Q: What sequence folds into this?
């Protein structure tokens, strides 16, 4: 058994281990059941905002959410056209984020970047954007327009609830959130 | 025949090595892109569109919903400022200042990232409900026993994790993280 053959075997083995390692890391998201998408799917049907129950000890619908915030989530698809997100939210910190199928936060903004309490967001694919540029509807002028290369994803709303006395009106505000509108 | 056995052994070792290291890397969280402001750590890119494959795999397993650049930045620690693991049997004082942000929250979890049951039903503080010191700095007391002032309950016997979430902060677009005022965590008495 020559030394050279042993060295080649070790190198070969390490290379193979590396390939397997990379393979496993890339495959994990495709077999994940407890990823954000899976959990959001189980909250309810797409095209509609679902309020996530406030996190309490022992009852956290989604992990690592900020307990000071209210959350609502809407699964969307761009296959039938652009997605319009609207909500009338109080003058407290709130933010909107668009997540892709892998749970990556692709785009986000908070209420300071928007300057009003009315959230009006339009989500378009690059193709839809190009089509709309030729004949832009009026609504595009007032809405915040976001171009994302996604077939599907979900929108997450976060709203600060400063204390328990504000809970009722914060919940009512979250109920105004809509993701079924059109441009 | 001997050659085949050698190859089989090599394949087995390679598979075990490859899978074990992949599993360890994915389980233990984010390997790359960490910003250390001891004892706090943040991973500004790991939840976003430029997340590396390990971070994407980690997201797939944890199911969490990371803050985006337009929302804020979360710092996390398992240790106090002396580098010792946060323990629910001890009392800690979180003092000092935070980096600039319109709003921030400090939340206590156990090491597994779960909220801990407590009589006050309180899991964290946000920046507007704190009783500040005269110079505007914080003094939050972590303890399993009731404390005066800003008391953040923790579970006795649990190892802890603290998450400081800074909302609407210039840090999300920062390229350098130097000279930041981060809260200190000092250990008080332990049982």
A:
């Amino acid at each position: 058994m020559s030394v050279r053959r042993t060295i080649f075997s070790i190198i070969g083995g390490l290379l193979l281990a590396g390939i397997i390692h990379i393979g496993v890391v890339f495959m994990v998201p495709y077999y994940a059941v407890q990823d954000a998408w899976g959990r959001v799917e189980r909250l309810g049907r797409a095209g509609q905002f679902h309020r996530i129950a406030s996190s309490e000890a022992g009852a956290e619908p989604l992990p690592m959410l900020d307990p000071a915030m209210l959350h609502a989530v809407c699964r969307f698809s761009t296959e039938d056209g652009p997605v319009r997100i609207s909500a009338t939210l109080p003058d407290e910190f709130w933010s909107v984020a668009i997540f892709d199928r892998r749970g990556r936060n692709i785009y986000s903004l908070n209420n300071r970047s928007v300057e009003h309490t009315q959230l009006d967001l339009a989500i378009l694919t690059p193709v839809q954007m190009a089509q709309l540029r030729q004949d832009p509807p009026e609504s595009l002028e007032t809405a915040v327009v976001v171009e994302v290369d996604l077939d599907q994803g979900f929108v997450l709303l976060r709203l600060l609830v400063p204390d328990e006395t504000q809970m009722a009106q914060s919940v009512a505000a979250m109920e105004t959130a809509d993701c079924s509108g059109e441009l | 025949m001997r050659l085949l056995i050698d190859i089989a052994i090599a394949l087995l070792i390679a598979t075990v090595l490859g899978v074990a290291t992949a599993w360890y890397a994915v389980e233990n969280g984010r390997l790359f892109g960490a910003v250390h402001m001891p004892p706090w750590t943040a991973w500004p890119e790991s939840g976003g569109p430029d997340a590396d494959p390990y971070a994407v795999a980690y997201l797939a397993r944890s199911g969490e919903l990371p803050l985006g650049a337009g929302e804020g930045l979360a710092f996390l620690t398992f240790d106090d400022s002396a580098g010792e693991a946060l323990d629910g049997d001890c009392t800690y004082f979180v003092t000092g200042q935070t980096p600039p942000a319109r709003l921030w929250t400090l939340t206590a979890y156990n090491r597994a990232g779960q909220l801990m049951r407590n009589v006050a039903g309180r899991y964290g503080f946000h920046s507007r409900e704190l009783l500040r010191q005269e110079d505007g700095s914080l003094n939050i007391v972590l303890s399993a026993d009731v404390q005066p002032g800003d008391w953040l309950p923790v579970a006795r016997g649990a190892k802890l994790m603290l998450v400081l979430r800074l909302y609407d902060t210039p840090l999300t677009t920062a390229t350098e993280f130097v000279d930041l005022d981060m809260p200190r965590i000092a250990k008080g008495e332990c049982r």
Observations:
- Residues 31-190 of chain B form a domain with the Jelly Rolls fold (CATH 2.60.120.600).
